[in-house]
Each structure stands twice: as structure tokens, then as C-alpha cells.
Amino acid sequence: MKWKAYGSRAEWLQGRKNRIGGSDAAAVVGASPYMTNEQLWEIKTGRRQQNDISDNPLVRYGTEAEEHLRELFRLDFPEYEVFYQENNLWTNDRFLFAHASLDGWLKDGQGRNGILEIKTATITSAVQRAKWKDGIPQNYYCQVLWYLMVTEFDFAVLKAQLKYDFSGDVYLQTKHYFIERSEVDEDIEFLRQAAEKFWSYVQQDKRPPLILPEI
Q1: What is the model's pTM?
Q2: What radius of gyration, in Å, describes the C-alpha atoms of the chain?
Q3: H-helix segments, 100-183
Q4: Which domains are seen in the chain, by residue range?
Q5: Phi, psi of 48, rounded to the nearest 5 degrees
Q6: pLDDT digits over 10-29, tens only?
Q7: Could you count the other beta carbons within 10 Å of the beta carbon of residue 201?
Q8: Collapsing DSSP states into helix, strand and coil, what is residue 80?
Q9: Angle CA 103–92–69, to nearest 5
């Protein structure tokens, strides 16, 4: 496993092109609300352009909030060392189809390495609220599994800021989800196998069977 920091966002985007990233991982298994596995295949084979959503107000909010939420995590959990470098890209020679870009990485008091993943979400419906109530939405869970696979780290922490707007009265709820790698090894292996199969379709330039998301 290795990582590098690119000198610019343009170089970072170029470095991500020929592998599957964490935000794509859910599409591989039909768990993405934004993209099917067929659409991801079309992107990776050059048949479709990746949508640029960087100017979306919610995406821009999440990007700009990330550094502040990372610093709040550092203050709230001083038992962890917190590391970050802009435009980071992690790869692993065991998984040549995969890369990871981390919101931060951690070291705990026992010297174990971990991932810090940061999410912001504006809750506008009961359905959205339910997805965060007892766990992590499936697409974000797949992303965390992907990062654990690539880095081979011991644990992950997902910090989520949930934003509710009641007629201009903004309410923020912060949640932390702690995930031990040893407890999700089977899920990581399932995702790895699915990704290897998907990547074989990319390499063969053969369209994969469509995976319909569960309703």
C-alpha cells in the first residue's frame, strides 16, 4: 500500500481515472443512488463522461466544511492522531483496480492505523432521516469498506454532520460511527470479489449485467 499527494486538483483527477474510487464502489454492487453499475462501466470504458458536480451547492458545502469538521474531530477525540494532505491518492498493488482518497487518516493509542471519513447531509425527508438513524447509508458504508480494503487499515471512523432546516431554523446533529475492520472483513471480501469481476468487464470491454438497486 502506498500513497502520494498530487500538486494540483487537475493532476489528482487525472491520477484517479484508470481505477475505481470509493465514491464509485457502491455502484459496483448496485447500492448507489446516483449511478448504476452499467453507467460506471460506461465511464470507465470511455463511453460516458463523469458528471462534474463540484458546483452543486450541497457538494460545495460539504467540501468547504470538511476541514472544519476534521479539526473538530481532532478536538473532540484527542486520543487519535489526525493526518491529512490535500489531493492524496492511495493505491495497493494487491488491488490494481482500486484507489482511495481519504478525508483523513488516524493513529490510535495502540499504534493502529485508521480512516477518517467525513460526510455532510441536508435532511429533507423522513426517508433520508431513516437512512442515518440506525447506521450508515449503504453507499457510504461501501465507501468505507473500499477504503479499508485499499489501505488495509485496522478501523474507520465516519463523522457525519446532519443538517435540518425548519423554515430557516437550522439544526445540526453530529454522529460518529466507529467500524472495526475485524467486524466487517466478510463485507470487504464480498465487495472485493464484486469489484474484481466488474473490472474484468472493463478490461474485456464487455457490458456487465445490470444490477437493480434494492427498493
Answers
A1: 0.95
A2: 17
A3: 126-133, 138-151
A4: 2-204 (3.90.320.10)
A5: -140, 145
A6: 999 888 888 999 999 999 99
A7: 17
A8: coil
A9: 5
